[in-house]
Design brief:
By secondary structure, the protein is α+β, with helices and mostly antiparallel strands. The chain contains six helices and 17 strands. Strands 6, 7, 8, 9, 10, 14, 15, 16 and 17 form a nine-stranded mixed sheet that branches. It has a five-stranded antiparallel sheet with strand order 1-2-5-3-4. Strands 12-11-13 form a three-stranded antiparallel sheet, with helices on one face.
Length: 312
Amino acid sequence: MNQIENQFKNYQFIIEEDEKGTRLDLVLSLHLTETSRSFIQKLIEGGAVRVNDKICLSKKEKVAALDKIEINIPEPEELAIEKENIPLDIVYEDDDVLVVNKPRGMVVHPAIGNYTGTLVNAIMYHLGDRLSSINGVIRPGIVHRIDKDTSGLLMIAKNNLVHEGLSKQLAEHSITRKYIALVYNGFSEDEGTIDAPIGRNPKDRLKQAVTRENSKRAVTHYKVLERLGKYTLIEAQLETGRTHQIRVHMSYIKHPLVGDLVYGPKKQTISVEGQLLHAKVLGFVHPRTGEYMEFERDIPEAFQKILDNLRK
């Protein structure tokens, strides 16, 4: 789908050959990634979507190649993100940077149709207007993200100077990011590196995949921390930072994350909501002082209980 116009939150698309037969709500959500699918469905039902210049009220409508799709999305100023008094686990804070330990189950930033209960709502209450504006009203201060069901360390920029400095380090792959994950199956080796490009899955556009088509280089280093029968506890260190990188790479080498219903088995052998993945170590050079700083947080209690049960 090629975007051909984007003005005042009015989007127009042309359906490509490989997208024909896809539901209208799905094809829109795949390309308007900051907008939730449920909100897109409400817009369709409210008459905000046209197919070939005719209003379409059916979210289940199947699109055809060369269909022209138009959708009108409310202006973001009406989204006014609210400050919410949500407790934060603050690991470090100075005048430029905030490092927090995000709990499992919390979304990092609001999206259209989902404005509350996010990390951004919480840090806005804590910091007020003292956040960088580079990523706009919906993602103030957010330099990088982790998935909703991934817990762990995130850095927040309080001003644009620091935001630009941290973003540059991300682009140069110089930031230390180590994760702890519980994966399926045993390893014959103690450590290894996965160097395999990641892009949108050509067979399932809701997923990422290791693919040579429209992809970017992705590198994950891993080492075995503990062997637990048919499971293994590993440390995964990111060299690059692609969407769902650890989840995709570990599934690619036949070691999907426990709890990952997207890239792992549909029937999980351990009852848990979402992947068991924790961003344990975060290290970077402070853009203002030039000092290297590194922070660490242990896995959350629920993750620890599962490990304790496996050890028994």
